[in-house]
Write a structure and sequence with these properties.
The chain is an alpha+beta fold. The protein is built from 21 helices and 22 strands. It is elongated.
């Protein structure tokens, strides 16, 4: 088909709201689910603007039984009903039928507002099959009805009233949106966010589609919100209490942060109550503040970091869950849907306000600061390990439990991780006794050959290339570093079973160093244990006593009768035990003694420092650490 001639007659001028109906995506982002629900947000945001500027105290939102009709009511000032001086029609009709008409272009009616462009209410009207507005103002109630953006009736004065407020009831046009219906749960969540952002604000949501009524109110503000986000995602917190800042003006600002064990950061930001899903300058200011405050704290307090370790912005913000809400007089949004804030000056204002408060909070909460810095150091180490680790270690699912496992692993028959145990055993001879004495259904045995690599001193390449450590990671199946996935862990008890002598303790320490540096969640989530095998067997007649060390032996001997003649034998290693003896003393869940490996609260950074000093390359640090802890060390003959 040939193109028609292009002349002045080809130029079409869309009058009034016809442009909105022709190109709704320009105003609400599209006609799909998001755009459909955006109509509700526009009307609710206007009611919230009345509330945050102190003119309204309650808002009610009702989703009617048909699922397509919504009513929003507030007790604010009410939309003006007097005649507009230029248009010659009531102001309410101007607001609902003329683009870029509203009371939010200067600061005389609203100090801050979510509505900026003056198109929200008129766009909803244009895209609605029917819209009815009821206003209580100037001593009377008023009403007017619209169809697809055009006034169907004139503004009508009703009964006298002393109340004030605005009620808008609308039904989206099926010609534009098809047969879509509103999601009551999504509306409730969005309304609840508004009550988090505006502490003290109460919103009632009536969902007639399922006959439910929700009273939404949160006095704790963003502190409540960030805790809700953490709980909703079932994240484990590094610090239990959130860091919060509430600033009343210049700009009005509220921030709440929590640090978690999550491998990623998560931020939510808002401007004048409007969610900015793509962030913007205010969110970037918050991120800058976190980075600078923690770097300044490290410098000011001369915090010792592992040699050669460089902290990146991602390391410092890893695991952060943050919410930022600011109110500014003239927000410059990117597009009508307001997904991103563009005000350049806001970044520095937010960064300056938050950085100083966060530095002060860290100084006043040293236990929290210790936990955060330990978390950051581990994030940096995991980052360095993750790239190489992902190439050499594959995570295995439950289906592939029996595939590509170390050849020397004696696996168990059960495939239920919660019911199974992996014993990492020192030496092939001890491994042989353990394999014969174990419960084959639930207990797996992995023998080690000699002392494993010191993961604190070795390079990442050497750690990943070490056969013993590689076999351990393969047997556990959950990966390591940032790729560690506890849902793929094949055993929920990892038990270090070493000889009860100095060499055995050294191997245990080397293993714990590896787990701490590359598989720390195994420790923090309580999967790692130490076995407590006997070092001595004390026989008195028909009685047999077991002692795990010298002190235990002396305690047992003191309790014996002076006339008794105990026979004492010392095990040179686990390999000397008969399989039955090893099972009864060390493997049997009903008789054994296990020690869970934990990192005490508030001791994360101290733990990190001790490992670095005792296991690192610097001998002088190790000497100082040994001297500092010499009172806890007992020297015995080899």
């Amino acid at each position: 088909m040939a193109a028609q001639e292009y002349t002045s007659a080809s130029i079409e001028v869309l009058e009034g709201l016809e442009a909105v109906r022709r190109r709704p995506g320009m105003y609400i982002g599209g006609t799909g689910r998001d755009g459909f629900h955006h109509l509700v947000w526009e009307i609710v945001d206007n009611a919230v603007d009345e509330a945050i500027n102190g003119f309204a105290s309650s808002i009610t939102v009702q989703l009617h039984r048909d699922g397509r009709t919504v009513t929003v009511r507030d007790n604010g000032r009410g939309i003006p009903v007097d005649i507009h001086p230029k248009k010659g029609i009531p102001a309410v009709e101007v607001i609902l039928t003329v683009l870029h008409a509203g009371g939010k272009f200067d600061n005389s009616s609203y100090i801050t507002s979510g509505g900026l462009h003056g198109v929200g209410s008129s766009v909803v009207n244009a895209l609605s099959e029917r819209l009815i507005v009821n206003i209580k103002r100037d001593g009377y109630e008023w009403t007017q009805e619209f169809r697809r953006g055009k006034a169907r009736t004139k503004l009508e004065k009703l009964d006298p009233t002393r109340a004030t407020g605005t009620q808008i009831r609308f039904s989206p046009d099926p010609e534009i949106f098809g047969d879509q219906t509103f999601d009551g749960d999504e509306i409730r969540k969005r309304l609840e966010i508004s009550t988090y952002l505006n502490r003290g604000l109460k919103i009632i949501f009536k969902d007639d589609t399922n006959n439910k009524r929700h009273e939404l109110h949160h006095e704790g503000g963003l502190a409540d919100y960030v805790q809700h986000l953490v709980k909703d995602r079932e994240l484990r917190c590094v610090v239990d209490e959130p860091f919060t800042v509430v600033r009343p003006a210049d700009p009005r600002l509220e921030v709440a942060l929590m640090w978690t064990e999550s491998p990623s950061e998560r931020f939510k930001s808002f401007v004048n109550g409007i969610p900015t899903n793509d962030g913007g300058t205010h969110e970037q200011g918050l991120k800058d503040a976190i980075l600078k405050a923690i770097r300044n704290y490290i410098t000011t307090h001369n915090v010792s970091l592992p040699r050669g370790l460089k902290l990146t912005a991602d390391d410092i913000r890893e695991g952060v869950v943050g919410v930022c809400s600011c109110f500014i007089a003239d927000p410059q949004f990117q597009g009508q849907t307001k997904d991103k804030l563009n005000n350049v000056e806001v970044r520095a204002l937010v960064e300056g306000a938050i950085r100083l408060e966060l530095e002060r909070w860290l100084q006043e909460n040293t236990t929290a600061a210790d936990a955060l810095l330990s978390r950051i150091v581990m994030a940096a180490k995991a980052r360095e390990a993750s790239r190489a680790a992902s190439k050499q270690v594959r995570r295995k699912s439950a289906v592939s439990r029996r595939l590509n496992l170390p050849g020397k692993l004696a696996d168990c028959s059960s495939s239920d991780p919660a019911a199974t145990e992996l014993f990492i055993v020192e030496g092939d001879s001890a491994g042989g006794s353990a394999k014969q004495g174990r419960d084959r259904k639930t207990q797996a045995i992995l023998p080690l050959r000699g002392k494993v690599l010191n993961a604190e001193q070795a390079t990442l390449k050497k750690v990943l290339g070490n056969k013993e450590l590689s076999d351990i990671v393969s047997a556990l199946g959950c990966g390591l570093g940032k790729d560690l996935d506890l849902s793929r862990l094949r055993y929920h008890k990892i038990i270090l079973l070493m000889d009860a002598d100095q060499d055995g303790h050294h191997i245990t320490t080397l293993m714990l160093t590896f787990f701490y540096n590359y598989m720390k969640p195994l420790i923090t989530e309580g999967y790692v244990y130490l076995a407590d095998p006997p070092l001595y067997r004390i026989e008195v007649g028909k009685e047999t006593h077991w002692a795990s060390d010298e002190k235990a032996k002396e305690r047992i001997l003191k309790k014996l009768s002076p006339r008794s003649k105990p026979e004492i034998s010392r095990f040179k290693g686990l390999g000397e035990m008969m399989p039955k003896t090893l099972y009864n003393t060390t493997l049997n869940p009903r008789k054994r003694r296990l020690l869970k490996v934990v990192i005490p609260d508030g001791k994360q950074l101290e733990t990190q420092t001790v490992i670095e000093e005792l296991m690192g390359k610097d001998a002088s640090c190790r000497y100082r650490a040994i001297m500092a802890y010499r009172s806890l060390v007992e020297v015995v003959d080899a």
